[in-house]
């Protein structure tokens, strides 16, 4: 039996989630809705509150803007979580977590593991599927928070870190790293969902990702499966480049931007994009004066 937990601000999106649960779920379940339309919970606070309210031993944390597409998806979820060494599962993950602030999905595609439908702004759907080893489930370092399945036993050992993280970003990376200390973190391919929004980086995203790498510094990098030195290096470069773009776009403090620009230059001194970062930082410094 499953406790499905979501944090909601939209009645319309919640209704779609509820309807998809009714259409695809075969076992007894409860939907615990943490209403954040007038409250000001962080996602960590909301999910911990939902878990404390739950009456079943299996917990499934989901975004409110997803729809379940797989009939009897809950039976697959229960089957995976019966494996005693699986602490956390999801449907989008990455085999690498570098020492740099970063999200889950990477432009280095071979490190991604995913089975998900994304609803696009033009009304069409895009099915993303990356499972290069054709596995039943793939062990990963981190999972995206669209869907996170675990048991109350594991959650009680590693709550969402509401003391560290604010807002709605980074909680999935941090939770994955915490669960990875207790058991396996895996992507499963037999549960398909549709997701109707895209993530975006803001100041809270940057702040939380920096907090996360500081918290887990002694454990990073984490690589699952056959990750070559070349792939790890590519991921580190990609993470630094993505972070620098976000820092500059969001006009982050000069000191933080300079720190990561210097790390990017040290990592790949002859990469052309470094000149772009240096130019942007110089203009930022001049304008500040």
Structure description:
The structure is a single chain. This protein has 289 residues and is α/β, with parallel strands linked by helices. 39% of the residues are buried. Strands 4, 6, 8, 9, 11 and 14 form a 6-stranded mixed beta sheet that branches. The radius of gyration is 19 Å and the shape is globular. A hairpin with a 5-residue loop joins strand 8 (112-119) and strand 9 (125-130). It is built from 9 helices and 15 strands. The protein has one domain (2-225): Spore Coat Polysaccharide Biosynthesis Protein SpsA, Chain A (Alpha-Beta Complex). Helix 7 packs parallel to helix 9 and helix 8 runs antiparallel to helix 9 (273-288). The longest helix has 21 residues, at 229-249.
Characteristic key phrases:
289 residues, four-stranded mixed beta sheet, 9 helices, 39% helix
Topology of helices and strands:
Layout: E1 2-8, H1 11-24, E2 29-35, H2 43-53, E3 58-62, E4 66-68, H3 73-81, E5 86-90, E6 92-94, E7 96-97, E8 112-119, E9 125-130, E10 137-139, E11 142-143, E12 147-151, H4 152-157, H5 171-179, E13 184-188, E14 193-195, H6 203-215, E15 222-223, H7 229-249, H8 254-267, H9 273-288
Parallel strand pairs: 1-2, 1-3, 5-13, 8-14
Antiparallel strand pairs: 3-12, 4-14, 6-8, 6-11, 7-15, 8-9, 10-13
Helix pairs in contact: 7-8, 7-9, 8-9
